[in-house]
Design brief:
With 288 residues, the chain is mainly alpha-helical. It contains seven helices and four strands, in the order E-E-E-H-H-H-H-H-E-H-H. Strands 1-4 form a two-stranded parallel ribbon. The protein has a two-stranded antiparallel sheet with strand order 2-3. The N and C termini lie far apart (119 Å).
Length: 288
């Protein structure tokens, strides 16, 4: 199988890949003589020019009419033209079984519209062009291959094998766990997990009933009575400690009075008169 398939003229090998090949298509409720007629007419969709291009004598004439800038080109053409081309090519190769077989026979070969007359849809003659028509046909080929495999798989009952790398499938959910068996009269049935069942060397786990509200913890036993010679057990918290020390009351002032000091002699010159009054009774100032 070839690694690369080049095409251009409708009369050459793989000429059915050209938009000029005489393979009518049914699209949008109308019959179009070639995919070139449809593609060029879509430049003027919704205007009388669309029908005029559809009725052109041949694909070359429709191409000249479509490139005539005296006609009002739709403003979004540069945005939608790639999708329109793919739509026309898909219709062509799905409505004609013979050329669909030719397209699928190319396998994974690179399809190239080889011409120096077009550097967008073709390769520009030297490989510098974008080759958008070849890329479009390769996209259509991948779609047709996937559809064929899906149809074959549906007939055989097996899942289809996609021809293009698909996104990784989501992880399938784990199988549901087996339901627990109802407890027997003699006690609950043992519960064995699926993993333990598949491992003979490991013993199954015994199922133990969970504690219920009725199986509450028993209260602690009462304390024994205090032995003889000891007071009763203290159950209440001790009262706050209060010191019992009280300072002794002072004795009567008559018993603790200090005898009067002897009368001082007259002060000498330069000093004041001598103090003759007795000092006040001594009273201790200690306060507990």
């Amino acid at each position: 199988m070839k690694d690369c398939v080049k095409f251009y003229h409708a009369g050459d090998d793989f000429g059915c890949f050209s938009n000029f090949s005489r393979h009518p298509i049914e699209l949008d409720g109308k019959t179009w003589p070639t995919t070139e007629h449809y593609f060029q007419a879509m430049k003027f969709v919704g205007t009388p020019h669309e029908e005029a291009v559809r009725q052109a004598d041949g694909p070359g004439e429709s191409a000249r009419m479509g490139r005539d800038r005296a006609r009002p080109l739709r403003p979004d053409w540069e945005t939608v033209k790639d999708g329109i081309m793919e739509k026309a090519c898909y219709a062509k190769f799905t409505q004609h079984a013979d050329i669909r077989k030719v397209l699928l026979s190319t396998g994974d070969a690179k399809l190239i519209e080889h011409t120096r007359n077009d550097s967008y849809w073709g390769d520009g003659g030297d490989g510098t062009g974008r080759n958008m028509l070849g890329i479009t046909l390769m996209n259509v080929r991948a779609i047709l291959r996937s559809e064929a495999e899906a149809t074959k798989a549906a007939a055989s009952g097996s899942p289809p094998q996609l021809s293009t790398p698909a996104a990784p499938a989501a992880t399938s959910p784990s199988p549901p766990k087996p339901a627990r068996a109802a407890p027997t009269a003699g006690g609950p049935a043992p519960q064995v997990s699926a993993r333990a069942a598949s491992t003979p060397a490991r013993a199954p786990r015994k199922w133990a009933p969970a504690a219920s509200a009725a199986t509450s913890v028993p209260p602690p036993p009462p304390r024994a009575a205090a032995p003889a010679g000891f007071g009763p057990r203290r159950t209440a918290a001790p009262a706050a400690f209060t010191p019992s020390y009280e300072p002794p009351a002072p004795a009567a002032s008559s018993a603790t009075s200090v005898p009067p000091s002897p009368t001082r002699a007259a002060s000498t010159a330069g000093f004041g008169p001598p103090r003759t009054a007795a000092p006040a009774a001594f009273t201790p100032t200690y306060v507990p």
